[in-house]
Amino acid sequence: MNQSSERAASHLRSPRRTVGFFTACGIVIANIIGTGVFTSLGFQVADIHSGFALLMLWIVGGIAALCGALCYGELSAALPRSGGEYHFLSEIYHPALGFMAGFISATVGFAAPIALAAMAFGKYFHGVFNFGSPILLSFVTVWIVALFHFGNLRLGSAFQNVWTLVKLLLIAALIGAGLLIEEKQPITFLPHAADTMAIFSGAFAVALVYVMYSYSGWNASSYIIGEVKNPERNVPRSLLVGTTIVMAAYVLLNAVFLATAPQDEMRGQLEVGLIAGKHIFGENGGRIVGAVICLGLISAISSMTWIGPRVTMSMGEDHWLLRFLGRKNAEGVPANAVLVQLLIVNLLLLTRSFELVVIYIQFALLLCSLLTVIGVVVLRMARPEIARPYRVWLYPIPPIVFAAITVWMMVYLLRSKTTESIAGLGTAIAGFLLYFCARRRVSAGQ
Q: Quick check: helix, strand or coil at residue 330?
């Protein structure tokens, strides 16, 4: 069977739609809340000292994520198929750009955050319970989570819902306790005249890159459109509701961190949650917060383990050389894609260093999301006849706002993190060129 026949056949297969609105919301929430919100503030307070400006980081990042979610919602309703940016960019621009986005997601886009979250889980678990080797715990965690997702889709859905609910309840408890504590730091969240300069500074733009990494996942349910019930309605709603919930949680959580822990103690530190926990709960606060983060990381690992293979599955359905990735087991799970991602995660865990990987990949991910959001405008102009069950609210403001914030970040990221940004751009170019190599191989074999 040639490539075009395979692609047509894959489109005719009826997807097993088992994911409802609440599960889709849970996937979005769980995919966003990971390590970023518990580690970013220590780097932000190094250059930004105003409480108002620090909270504005999370508000601006949330606004950008909301604008992006609205745009992805329209694309998800107009072009309903699993694959995320891979599918959208292929349909709007050219299959080569879609392949580029899929290549990034399939190689390190999901595997690197999974590995980073798994390593963090190992360290936090060891610190809380003083048991086991952190690196061994990391390997055990990713394999156990993957085994759940090798099973049927209903089991994966239940697993996702339970861990997401536990994580949200624990974060709410941390916020509530922080708001009730009497001893507060001498910080104000009201704006001052100097805050305008701070918000439009290069330091704010660079710090916003890390905030956007913390918001990564606001587009999560668009990757599994083929498994969502009533996708034209539930995918846009899940993107919007899930992102709004996380935005509120992030702003409140960082306000609690700033109000309960001295900035000098947090400056340059990764474990700001542990530091704040000690001031909120006493000496045992670090253990309590560590347990909270452990549970949250399991949910994040689970959601990314679920989402990532759906991207590679879509690529396998469309490209002859990758067709083994498009195969599903008897339960409808893309088992080969899950296994490939798991192997990449294991390789990354062996390196024991993911900070540079996360920095370099942010530029490539920002590029893909920028092209996708702009695609809302391009698609309306090029193909106005397509049915759009959901349209972006206040169009064209959301795509303009998202594009402006993203370009602003990318410019400062190129200036301050030049090597990592060029490496990320190089990864994108490699995926772009690989598409044409694969096409030539297919043509030669036919």
A: coil
